[in-house]
Amino acid sequence: MSQDQPSRADGAADETPASGTSASEGPADGHPADGHPARGMPGPARTGWRAVVTTRRIVTTVAVIAAIAALVVWIRWPEGEPVRADAAMVTVQSGPGRNEPIELDTTIYVPESATAKDPAPAILLAHGFGGSKASVAADARRLAGQGYVVMTWSARGFGRSGGTISLDDPDYEVNDARALIDRLADRDDVRRDADGDPRVAAVGGSYGGALSLLLAGYDQRVDTIVPQITWNDLSTAFFPESTGAGPADGVFKRSWAGLFFGSASAGGATSVADLAALLGARPDENGEIDPSTVDPSKAEELVQCGRFAPDLCRLYLEAATSGRATPAIVERLRRSSPASVLNRINAPTLLIQGQADTLFPLSEADANARGIAANGTPVSVAWYAGGHDATASTREADRVDEMTLAWLRHYLDETGPAPSDDFSYTTAGAISVRDTRPTTRIYTLDDYRPGSDGDGYRVRLNGISPQPVANPPAGTPAGVSSLPGAGALTSRLASAGIDVPGQFAAYSGVELPRSVDVAGAPTVRLRAASPTGEAVLFLKLYDVDADGRATLPGGSVAPIRLTGLPRSVDAIGTAPLVTVSLPTIGHRFEAGHSIRLVVATADQAYAGPPAPVVYQVSVQANSLQLPQVSPVPVADATGAWLWALAGLLAAVVLGVTTAVLVVRLRRRRQEVAVDSDAAGLPLVVRGLRKAYGDGYLAVRDLSFTVEPGQVVGLLGPNGAGKTTALRMLMGLIRPTGGEILVFGHRIRPGAPVLSRIGAFVEGPGLLPHLSGLANLHRYWQATGRPAEAAHLEEALEIAGLGAAVHRQVKTYSQGMRQRLAIAQAMLGLPELLVLDEPTNGLDPPQIAEMRAVLSRYATNGRAVLVSSHLLAEVEQVCSHVVVMSKGTGVAAGTVAEIVGEGRSVLVEVSDGDRDAALAALTSMPGIALVHPNGRGLVVELAGAERSDVVRELVGAGVGVERLVARRRLEDVFLELVGEGR
């Protein structure tokens, strides 16, 4: 792009960079750079006045926005009342007879409002396995800020507390907690229901969650509990068996058990007295351990077991060696399981379980809920997108906190309204265009259904004939479904899964004609044969999209151990049919997706048979059943709040901008008319048209708007009219019809408002004999603005040229020229940045950095318009898109609106039925748009469901072959600009 340069009296105009990269220099008519002439005022004075007005406007706008934002943040995130924290080592009586003293490291958090005259309810807040009281300090302080007296402590065997880990044993950890309730009952700032009976809740996650359940079973003083991501039966959690055979035939969850044991066995005692007790020794007169009194057998146990109780250590080592659960192991684990006391829990219970949790899956919460509800005790269940395998998002963490607080307000305070007893869960949504992270959708059911015998959706599987699968020697290599303790890596692997060829049988289902919502445990029936008469298998249920990408909901597998099998693989038909309960999930299988059942022989997370063997497996036809539900989507309160805040801030920005424009119009007697409706908008294009003298119509009818904070992609094939539209936007050519408004000012060649635009169109216009730095300096001098307003350091950072910025531009590569040109366009931080193919010549790392630069740039009222052929780049960086075809805008809106999230579907019909389908759907209610696409139709839904579309077409006698969602920008682009359009 070229534009006339301001001439210089010394004839040095040739030293000014060409403006191919920007239109933000001042116009050639002598007006100042802000585009508003001040008659009779000399140049320097005009510049100073302009700086004052600009500074005043910026300061005023920032002050107003900051004040409103601060107010909203204060309302949205109240800090709560002041809290006092008191730490102490306390001695409690524990053990089977509650007569064994032990020191526990405690901290009690007391809100300012809790006094002897106005006592507050109390909360026992327990930490997870491997943690300490420090792990829950932030949660404790937050709850105390809401008016509760909160007691935390390091469980025995952890942190500075004494004793050994007994795994929530009723005689030890549970009695420790009961002793802490006794201490709360003695405090005058804690509300009491009776003498010795404080008003108290038990809250905790994982290890602490099981403790809260066990405590409620053994101590009726507990008024309500909120257990999270915890277990029902520890024996079935570590020895699961999905045919219902029980833990004795279960498959050892090797990786999680090893991590569980290792996280505590490494920790040592923290005092001489504790260490002496563990070694069976006595301290000498100097307070040191007397070596002569050490019990050698106890010393060996300490090395092997750390701070685990010796009996637990021996049982773990036995299980890790054999991979099987003995009756002694099952009995000991069930002693530490809430399943043993569910019939004694009368405290209202809120169960919160993670959907990304292969340690304690959703089925554990289901078992707890049913056992407690059988007593008539109020129970509510909620699943959330998090757990031991993945950290919850801020949105999900806030949801859990809000549910917990609402539950405590009602059942502990007895002041809040009754919380909803609807069951809720979360499903994964589309990838967010803003931050490329998966979005989530929250659903509710009016009653708790998972695990019930509700209506099922049967999936027809293909290839159900027997298939051979090999168990590898020593179980290696094994498939991967999860990596316990690996955090984000686990969640990524869990979403895909890894299956080893030759070690699994796969059965694929037909394409789903409609979306299926699942909340519960799918089931399937299968047979197997094994030369050993026994087989260990792992079943997985994949969701496969239209492009063949598979995800494993929850990252979970269903392990089974089958015995009494036919030893001849040819006799598989005589094997009994067994029903397998697959992992409980909360998931939506979208229309157009399919379901794949995989039966594998080895999984990295479990212990299987070490001997190599080849099994034969087959799945019964039509036996895969999904627990289908009809959930109600929950409005995203956080999203609604953000939209409200955005609207409020936009209103403030628009109001301040409009007020400033009015003042400036009055003071400066602006001659150019301003469209007040568009004054706060960086760009408004209305009915734009450009016809050339030879009759060629380059732009026919183009309309779109670019708002502050947006990064808008201008898309279209070659010849669509994009470059012509950009040249008109820059004032290089005049439109034949319509108008272009920048902040309400109409664009024309030399228009003053062009100073508020930075542009890079039609290649870089740089002076080759000058250095990169000199090009930037010369360009900025040509605008007539102060050097300090150039933001030169930021521009150089954007260019990323390093020492090369001092070299002549003629030595630059194409990519270096491109980066320098873009940095030049950004000098002065113009309010509207227009870039034509900005990533040409850039390598992949530079392209990624450019995405980040543009996203950061579109803030503080600025906006970016990008023209590009790279649709993947546009989809990642742009918030909105405008699609052009043959000189006309064919679509405009957010990326999500254009791509659609289940709203736009592609319907393929039988040969010769397209016209009939078009006629049927055009007149159908709830349809916004129908247009042909090949032998099918693209249908924009506006209230109608996909099932309604199929029903309408079938009723019209149309053969429906396929109905799939359209999600990729590339697909939508090709349909919008194709010849059929």
From TrEMBL:
<keyword id="KW-0812">Transmembrane</keyword>
<dbReference type="GO" id="GO:0016787">
    <property type="term" value="F:hydrolase activity"/>
</dbReference>
<feature type="transmembrane region" description="Helical">
    <location>
        <begin position="640"/>
        <end position="663"/>
    </location>
</feature>
<protein>
    <submittedName>
        <fullName>Alpha/beta fold hydrolase</fullName>
    </submittedName>
</protein>
<dbReference type="Pfam" id="PF08530">
    <property type="entry name" value="PepX_C"/>
</dbReference>
<dbReference type="InterPro" id="IPR008979">
    <property type="entry name" value="Galactose-bd-like_sf"/>
</dbReference>
<keyword id="KW-0378">Hydrolase</keyword>
<keyword id="KW-0067">ATP-binding</keyword>
<dbReference type="Pfam" id="PF00005">
    <property type="entry name" value="ABC_tran"/>
</dbReference>
<dbReference type="InterPro" id="IPR029058">
    <property type="entry name" value="AB_hydrolase_fold"/>
</dbReference>
<feature type="domain" description="ABC transporter">
    <location>
        <begin position="683"/>
        <end position="911"/>
    </location>
</feature>
<feature type="region of interest" description="Disordered">
    <location>
        <begin position="1"/>
        <end position="47"/>
    </location>
</feature>
<dbReference type="InterPro" id="IPR017871">
    <property type="entry name" value="ABC_transporter-like_CS"/>
</dbReference>
<comment type="similarity">
    <text>Belongs to the ABC transporter superfamily.</text>
</comment>
<keyword id="KW-0813">Transport</keyword>
<dbReference type="InterPro" id="IPR003593">
    <property type="entry name" value="AAA+_ATPase"/>
</dbReference>
<keyword id="KW-1133">Transmembrane helix</keyword>
<feature type="transmembrane region" description="Helical">
    <location>
        <begin position="58"/>
        <end position="77"/>
    </location>
</feature>
<keyword id="KW-0547">Nucleotide-binding</keyword>
<dbReference type="InterPro" id="IPR000383">
    <property type="entry name" value="Xaa-Pro-like_dom"/>
</dbReference>
<dbReference type="InterPro" id="IPR003439">
    <property type="entry name" value="ABC_transporter-like_ATP-bd"/>
</dbReference>
<keyword id="KW-0472">Membrane</keyword>
<dbReference type="InterPro" id="IPR027417">
    <property type="entry name" value="P-loop_NTPase"/>
</dbReference>
<dbReference type="Pfam" id="PF02129">
    <property type="entry name" value="Peptidase_S15"/>
</dbReference>
<dbReference type="InterPro" id="IPR005674">
    <property type="entry name" value="CocE/Ser_esterase"/>
</dbReference>
<dbReference type="InterPro" id="IPR013736">
    <property type="entry name" value="Xaa-Pro_dipept_C"/>
</dbReference>
